[in-house]
Amino acid sequence: CDQSLWYNYYIKCLLENKEMQKAIELIDQILESFPKQKKFFLRFKAIAYSMQGKLKEAESLYCSLTEHYSSDWWLLHEHAKVLSDLDKRDNALKLMCKAAVVNQGKLETMVSLFEDMGSILKKLGKYEESRAHFLLSKYVRTSKSWSLKESLLTAILELKKVINKNNDPASLQEALNICRSFWGKMLQDQTAKCEKNLRQGLIGNLSLGPQERSFCFINIGNESFFCFKSDLPTNAKDGISVIFDAKPSFDKKKNKDSWKATNIKIKEI
């Protein structure tokens, strides 16, 4: 609606003028009034936290966004940049690979993503993969007759000296093939890791907690499994017995590894 659009532009102006706290306070005031635009206002709040240097708060918000909403490639990219700033480079790289796969048909929109991936790969010592991503950005820019940034050309030159091989990908398609192969391997390795650690066919009792709370727990003895109420079957009630799987997660509040319940079904008597 016109009102939500007005707030969208106003908050964007506040951020551009570095009035981050004012933007955060305004978002908190209006958030529940525009449920359909909640994703975008929370994204602005995450950006504001990042601009303030509150990276952990920004990361927590991005985790919530990617958990509850469709994983748009640009949202994954922003989340990954926060993880990179927190020195969580491996996790940042995995998110960037996912972002690239989600939007791989629109290369011209992702030149900054390719350059950020190249930078992380360079820091991780994966020089040939880094070079491929920097060159992919260069080839895309050239194909659109865009200018080439000095930092991009410098990075490519530095990697050429480190690799000491004259086997640069010679075309956009060759660089893209190398990059796509790398993205696929990264995501395949991540999927295999998750599947390996997945606990299946667990049985526990549901504890819904306060009605206004968006999450709940499934208890098995002294062990609790986190889950969102939106993931529950429609007829789930407090105390009911459920069958579920559990995948590794991380409890930010307690700063420790934990488990998240998935594929939740009511146990038939």
Characterise the protein shown here.
The protein has helices at residues 2-16, 20-30, 38-52, 55-68, 73-85, 89-102, 111-123, 127-143, 150-163, 172-197; strands spanning 199-207, 215-220, 223-228, 241-251, 256-266. Strand 4 (241-251) and strand 5 (256-266) form a beta hairpin. It is built from ten helices and five strands, in the order H-H-H-H-H-H-H-H-H-H-E-E-E-E-E. Helix 2 (20-30) packs antiparallel against helix 3, helix 3 runs antiparallel to helix 4 and helix 8 (127-143) crosses helix 10 (172-197). It has 269 residues and is α+β, with helices and mostly antiparallel strands. The termini are far apart.
Percentage of β-strand residues: 15-25%
Distance between the termini: 48 Å
Task: Sketch the major β-sheet.
Answer: 5 strands, antiparallel
Poorly predicted sequence stretches spanning 5 or more consecutive residues: none
Query: What sequence of helices (H) and strands (E) makes up the elements?
Result: HHHHHHHHHHEEEEE
Rg, Cα atoms, Å:
22 Å
Structural class: alpha+beta
Number of helices: 10
Output the strand order for the largest sheet.
Answer: 3-2-1-4-5
Total DSSP E strands: 5
SSE layout:
Elements: H1 2-16, H2 20-30, H3 38-52, H4 55-68, H5 73-85, H6 89-102, H7 111-123, H8 127-143, H9 150-163, H10 172-197, E1 199-207, E2 215-220, E3 223-228, E4 241-251, E5 256-266
Antiparallel strand pairs: 1-2, 1-4, 2-3, 4-5
Structure characteristics:
single chain; 269 residues; alpha+beta; five-stranded antiparallel sheet; 16% strand; globular
